[in-house]
Every structure is written in structure tokens, then in C-alpha cells.
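CORE FACILITY INTAKE
Project code: CF-77B
Contact: R.S. (postdoc)
Sample description: multi-component assembly, two entities in total
Requested service: structural model of the whole complex
Turnaround: standard
Below are the sequence entries exactly as provided by the requester. Do not edit them.
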Amino acid sequence: MFERSEIPAFWYDGYSARRHEGLVEWSGGDTLLLRAHDGELMEVAIDDLIFVERGVMDGSYSRKADDGFRLSFTGTVPEDLAQRLPSGQKFGKWIDRLGLPKAAALFAGISAVLIAIVMTAPTWLGPRVPASWERKMGDAMIGDLGNRLCHTPQADAALAKLVDELDPERPVTRVGIANVDMINAVALPGGQVLIFDGLLQEAESADELAGVVAHEIGHVRERHVMQALLRQFGLSVLLGGINSDLGSSIFGIASMSYSREAEREADAFSRKQLAAADISPAGTAEFFEYLKDESGDSPEWVGWVASHPMPAEREEAFRNAVVKGKRYKPALTDAEFTALQEACEKDPDTEEFSFF
Amino acid sequence: MDAGLFRGRKNNMDEEQAESAFGFHGTWREFAPIAFTNLLLIIVTLGIYRFWAKARERRYLWSRTRFIDERLEWTGTGLELFLGGIVVLLAFVIPYIVMTQVSQAMIMRGQTAIGVALFVVPLLALFYLMGVARFRAIRYRLGRTNWRGIRGGSNDNGFRYGWSYMWKTTLGYLAFGLGVPWAMVSLWNERWRSMSFGPMDFTCSADFSPLMKRYLLFYFSPFLAILVAAAAMFAIALGFAVDFDGAGGFDPEEPPIGFVAAVVVALFLFYFVLGFIWLVYFAKFYRVVVGHMALGDLEFEFDARTKDWIKLGLGDVALVILTLGIGFVFLGYRHWKFFVTHMQAYGEVNVDDLTQSTTKRARHGEGLLDAFDMGAI
């Protein structure tokens, strides 16, 4: 025969704020009988109880059915009842089961694997995305850029000739002149390469331009744009937990940057295409020399750390690609190059490019 | 203390020594293991644990907070905060990102009107939802706060409050920003009048006019600062002109490094000092609005003076800087302690009349508020 236990306790019933003091009676069954000194009675199923930390004196018990209910024992709970009472959560169900060090290590491992996947998967996934998909995506994201590109019949013809020489297969690449006064050129999603007007004005010759355009086409052809898009998307999803401001990182697409390795690949592509088109890489080398002078001589290690290879290193690579004694042909005639330089000025209805 | 009734008196010299209705009994030593394990788990889960971390932190802070003779209890869970976060992600963040992307695409295509519309509509929605979020965060916190087994809440879902928030805020700024105190006080009254604890509704009838003096101080201080700064710059420029006369004087293209440093320091001081002048206003704001709140026969008071807020602010800055940033894990603790220790209540609570709240509770937490990173109170 089971002995009946009586344990002193106080409780709140969850219906009013009155504090009940009395005895908890247990006869070994599935329920507790709460008998208050003022005569009130309440029956609670043990299975219905959950442990909550109250902070002050050890813990107390709430009910699954009613989180207003609180039962705190003020006397000693007999061993056999204590074993039937639920225990509490500390960090959360899964973590408590494993223990903090193990759980932390496990989560860290999973996170590291996820980050590694997001960083590396685009490298092989990017080239496997069909070029037509990328083009559609690019069109959806930025469209045809409206009137922001500079067009004159002469410039269009000259540009078409240059691109045809540099990339005869040309499956997705579109090259345009953007009305932006910056010395730069960019590859955008969808195989869109933009030469900024500022670059055209600073370039000394069509040969200089050819190397830079071939470099950007290289980013498109080597699928760096798609890779960077995928990487950025993956990271923003993964790190969305830390920073709920997802939007801002998505905007980063416009200012996408590539890894050093990708830049080298694009340079290599550029040299290969220049060679195939019989255009001298010396012009591109001169352009990098100009960049080097502009940015000043920074120590070598900066180039190693920064994502872009140092202009000096790139200049040398292009310089070394010049085959001695070979007769190169100019990338464009002087008239054609001038047409490119005048494209923005002479285009009657071009708009300012305010996006960048 | 009598189990049935609590009494406190406001202007009674005899009871000046009496204990405040609110008390905080936590220690940072107790809190540190919670804060640091939370930080660890947040890092290794790439942020997902932060919902559970918040629940753990609150469970601790609430359990160390005494109201009259019994501690508060936090009954919210990490899971419901997590679900709130997911709801916001699906219902708001993703549509917001999609719309802004489409808007960019439209603008790039030259469809400026549609693009701008698609850009403005989510911004307006954001404005509206910020009001709703603030309302629902208070409702959520009251609904998860137990005292003697009784909780609070609201029967209002906050959607109407969102509109009030929009038009009152706009009106406040339209009058050259002079209506801001009116908007803040009026919105505070409106939020809290919809809230209840147990069977009792909060009342709140604060008036904005006592705030205007301090607000005007804040309002005009930038003009004063600009005047002072302009005078100083003029003096410096004059000084240069005198000193280096003949050598070309002050060259704006290549300003001397000392001048640049002076401008940076001036700008920093400008924002820093402006921040503290805002605190002068905000301290009064908080005293006024809390001082007009009541729940049944209980009246509330918040007794932090401006210097207390400044001490809190400087303490925060010092804590974060001296610990090289890691001290930020204690900021929530510090702010809660500040809030509780300065909170006072006077009057009576009849615990037999304080019956369970009949308000509905949402199954998810304060997702919106979390997404906008706002405080509730």
C-alpha cells in the first residue's frame, strides 16, 4: 500500500492573483491534490506539469494547459515524486539533450560546412547555369538600360567590330557605352558589359580599350558574374539570421566584386583573345601603368591582400605577353576610336546614368 | 504584507523609507553565464539562436524583478519568437526585397513612374508596419508577463494604431517638426489605453505641453551650434589669412590637417552634444508619460532625472569601449535594471479582483519589432 505524502507548498491558480498556501497531497497516482488552508481544492495531473525556472527559490511548476498556474514546493519533495516531476529546459530542448559544448561544436561544424558550400558551390554551379537563363535573369534585373547607353551609328559599328574581334563566338555578351564619368568598365548580370565614358576619354588608344573590354568579357565568359550572384545570394540567405536587414546586401549586386583569382582568369582570357585577334597587349599594359601612377605606389602586400591584383603585377603580365618582332594590327582605326569617344557627346537623347 | 491588499502612499514622509513597489535583484555575475553562452550559441548557429537567447535573457531579467511581493515571470518562448521572425520574413522581408528589385529593374528600363511607385509603396508599408510593430510588441510582452499567475494583453490587434502612427507622426513633422512632442505623447496615450493587465485597462492621459520647453531647447540647439561653429571657422580662417598672408592663405583644396581634425571633432561633438540634449528632453518625456499612467487604483511614476539617463548613456559607451565591444551583451541587462529601479507605483491592488486576462494572445512573438530593431517601451 502506497503511503500518502503531504508537502507544504504555495500556488497561484491562474484565475486570480490570490496566493494559495497549503499542502500538496500525493497518493502515488497520476494526480496531485492541492488543498489550501482556506479550504480551496484543486486537482492537477502530473503529466500536465512543466518545470519553470523562477529564479528565486529553485524552480516551480506550471501547467501545459495554463501558463498562469504556478506551484512552488516549500517543503521537501519525496524522492519517488521528485522522479515523476518534469525537469526544465536550460538552453533549449536539443541543446540540453546534447550538452552545451557538444551542441556548440555541432552547430559550429554545420555552420562552417554551410558557409564553405556557399563559398565554393558557385564556382562549379555558376558555369552550369545555362547562359540563356543568365541572360533572362539579367534582363529581369536590369533590362536594356533604356536611354542610358550612348549610341551613334558610327560608334555602334566601331564597338560591334571591336567586340567581334575580341570574342567572335559571342554567345551572351552585349557591350555598351554608359554615360558615366568614371574610369571603369563593369560586367553586369546577363552578359551585359558596360564601358564607362570616363574610361573612353582617358584611354590613349583603341588597344588600351581592347584589353579592358576583353577583361570584362572574360568575366562574362568565365561565368564570374553568375558565380558572384550565386555567392551573394547564398551568403545573404545564410547570414540573414545574424543581420535581418537582408535588403542592403542584395543591393550589393550592383557593386559586385570578384575574387583575385577571377580577376587573373579574366586577365588571362583578355590576353588570349588579344593574341587571337592580333591586337597588341602593350596598350593594356600602358593602361595599367597609368592606373598605377594614379593610385600611387602602394607596397606589394596591399596587392596580395586586396581583391584586385596590383596594377604593377597586371602591367607586367600584359607586358610579357607582347611577342617581340610580331606585327600587330591596331584594334580600331583612328576614326573608329574617335567615334567611340564621341558617342555620348553626339547621342542626341542619352540620359545621365544616375544609378551608380 | 497582507495577502489581499497592497497599499503605497505618495506624499507621506513616514513612508519615505518604505520599499519601492518595483525592485531588481539580479547581479551581473549571475547574468554573465547566460549572456556569454547566448553569444556563443548565436555565433555558432549563424544567428538563429538569437530568438532563444532573447527568451532566456528575459526569463532571467523578469525572474529577478519584484513587483510588491512577488517576482515577475516571463512565459514567452524562443520558438514563438522564431516563428514571429519567419512570419515577418515571408510576409514582409521577401516581398519587400522582390518589390525593390522589380522597382530597380523598372527604373533601369526607363519605366520611372512604375519604378518609383514600386519603391514608394513598400516604404509606406514599412512606415505603417513600424507603428503596428511597436503596438504589438507591447501587447506581446504584456501577454507573456505573469505576476502572481496573471498576465496582461490587449484586445486590439494594432492595425488601427498603425494608421494613427502614420498620420500623427507625419503631422508632427509637417509643422516644421514642432509637433513631434504632441505626436509622441498622443501615440503613447493611444497605445497604452488599449493595453490591460488582468481585468483592468491601463489609463494614460499625458499632456505634451510641459515638454515643449525642453523640446525647443533641442529644436534650436543645432542652429545655435551652427552659429557657434560658423563663428569659430570664420575666426580660424581669419587666423590663417593673417598668419600666412602672402603665402596664399587658406587653400580649401588642401586644408591643413589641424583644420580637418577640428572639423571632425566639431562634427563629433555636434552629434554627441545633440544626443545629450535629446536625452534632456527624453528624460522629461518619460517622466511625464509614465507619470500619467494608471492601472485600476495603481498609479505609476518614473523617477529617472536627466543626469540618470546621461549616466546610463555614458556607462553604456564606457562599457562597450572598455571591453572592446564584448560588453554589448550586458546592455539589455543594464537597460532593464535602469527601467525597473526607476519605476515606482502607488496605490492599491486587490489580488482577489485581479483575475486572469481574457485577451487573446498571438502564437508568434514580436517578429516585426525584431526585424525593425525597435524597443517596445
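Facility notes:
- Confidence is low (pLDDT under 50) at residues 1-5, 9-17, 244-249, 371-377 of chain B.
- Residues 207-280 of chain B form one domain.
Invoice: internal transfer
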